[in-house]
Amino acid sequence: MMRSIPFATKNLLIINIILFLATIVYGGSELAGETQYRLNDLLGLHFFLAPDFRIYQLFTYMFMHGSFQHLFFNMFALWMFGGIVEETFGRNKFLFFYFVCGVGAGLLQEAAQFGEFYFAVKNQLPDFSFSDIATVAHNSGNVLNLWTTVGASGAVYGILLAFGMLYPEQRIFIFPIPVPIKAKWFVMIYAGIELFYAMSGTSTNVAHLAHLGGMLFGFILIKYWQKHPASADRVDDVMNLFGNIGKKHFNSSKTKTPHQGSSTTTHHGNVDWDYNAKQQQEQNEVDAILDKIRRNGYDSLTKEEKQRLFDQGKK
User: Fold this and answer.
1) Partners of 148 in beta bridges
2) Which burial class, exposed, middle or buried, applies to 23 when counting CB atoms under 10 A from its CB (0-12, 13-18, 19+)?
3) Is residue 55 within a helix (H) or strand (E), and if so which, with residue range?
4) Sequence ranges of the chain with CATH classification 1.20.1540.10
5) Which fold has domain 7-233?
6) Are the beta carbons of 174 and 118 closer than 8 angstroms?
7) CA separation, residue 185 to residues 77, 139, 163, 172 (Å)
8) Under a CB-based contact definition with an 8 Å cutoff, are residues 213 and 206 in contact?
9) How far apart are alpha carbons 182 and 15 in whole angstroms?
10) How far apart, in whole angstroms, are the C-alpha atoms of residue 153 and residue 138?
11) Does an H or E element contain 132, and which?
12) pLDDT per position as a tens digit, 188-247
């Protein structure tokens, strides 16, 4: 099954699972119990006024999870929708979108925590002002270090939004709703639920504003790409540049030692040849559709082209 998942989505799934297993070994997971060293404390996103905050945590936190259920539902959603969005965007654009949503979710969560911190202190210290923030934060360091956010939810919610915007009329089954609903309504329902919980202040262990942040940044980015298609191409150019630099460095470090007197012969039967030709033809059709999206936007596709792209994403 993993073979049929697009490259970026597959590797995101693998990395998240590996790091969750690492938290079991090194602590930081509900399965590991308390240890002296907790991986989530190192890679999870701390409140920016906490002593343990590091800027890299805005990136690493989205690969960490606090429980198996947390990991399972995030990875299930990524597996279900990520491949289709990746096939539509292309690998580089998909990864850029995923990480922008994840970082954006983290930034909104940081802003929410700052508001919570400020008003909590203001209620206890009526004369408290912004100039006192650093001092109070320093004296509350041990408490603030407990404000840690982990999970790919923000990035995954961005992927859900992208699916709803790219395929708004596509019908999907969502438990426990007994009938299929259109993707656009599915996204709106989820966004409404997250907004309700965020505004009501319930379920404090869930970063609802981070989920909304992922959707917000994803919405802004998609709208920007739709208005400026050339900017999406520049994302590919930059990602390819870094990829080529890494590939060149990797290849230069390899030592090639051919074995004398050895030869390798590969025989392709007619069945394999026909299969490969068919695969190449299908890929060419998908590439043509993706080029059309980059030039004129997703709305320029015909109904048949949208369905063709959706079907390809499910393979």
Assistant:
1) 46
2) buried
3) none
4) 7-233
5) Rhomboid-like fold (1.20.1540)
6) no
7) 16, 47, 11, 10
8) no
9) 31
10) 30
11) none
12) 998 999 999 888 876 567 888 999 999 999 999 999 999 988 887 777 777 766 555 555
**How far does CA 129 lie from the centroid of its chain?**
37
Whose tokens are 């998942």? That residue is 5
pLDDT tens for residues 149-161? 999 999 999 999 9
d(CA 198, CA 201): 5
Cα 2 to Cα 11: distance, rounded to the nearest angstrom: 10
Q: What share of the chain is helix, strand, coil (3-state, %, to 5)?
A: 70, 5, 25
pTM value?
0.75
Q: What parts of the chain have a pLDDT lower than 70?
A: 1-3, 27-37, 202-204, 240-280, 294-295, 297, 312-315
Distance of CA 43 to the CA centre of its chain: 16
Q: Which two tokens stand for residue 176?
A: 């426990």
